[in-house]
Amino acid sequence: MEFCDECGSLMRAEGDVWECSQCRNVEAKGSGEFVLTQGQEASEVIDVSDSESGLPTTDARCPDCGNDRAYWYLQQIRAADESETRFFVCTECEHRWREDDH
User: What tens digit of pLDDT does each residue of 51-74 get?
Assistant: First the structure.
């Protein structure tokens, strides 16, 4: 995620630049690679650069390649009175999956 240097609002990915949703400030994107998954909004873009993802890692087995390390993050996608959803990204093949408390 990127935040505007001018007003602090969340920036949106627009082509090869970041655009502020509030003050319309425009900044160039870095050299990282950006991945959008089906149903994902541009404001939810995650930078998966060549070296470090910036996300913490944990022991989790990838259902695609069997690798036992994954990056993880939490996101509130349901009502505020329900727990967050845990998302995982394989450190080898970059396969993404989620884990709910159901």
Answer: 555 788 899 999 999 999 999 988
CB atoms within 10 A of CB 30: 11
For 2, which DSSP code? -
Tokens of 57: 């890692």
Which residues 6+ apart lie within 8 Å of 97 measured at CB? Answer: 62, 63, 87, 88
Question: At 58, which amino acid appears?
Answer: T
Domain 57-99 in CATH 2.60.120.20: no
Domain with CATH 2.20.25.10 in the chain: 57-99
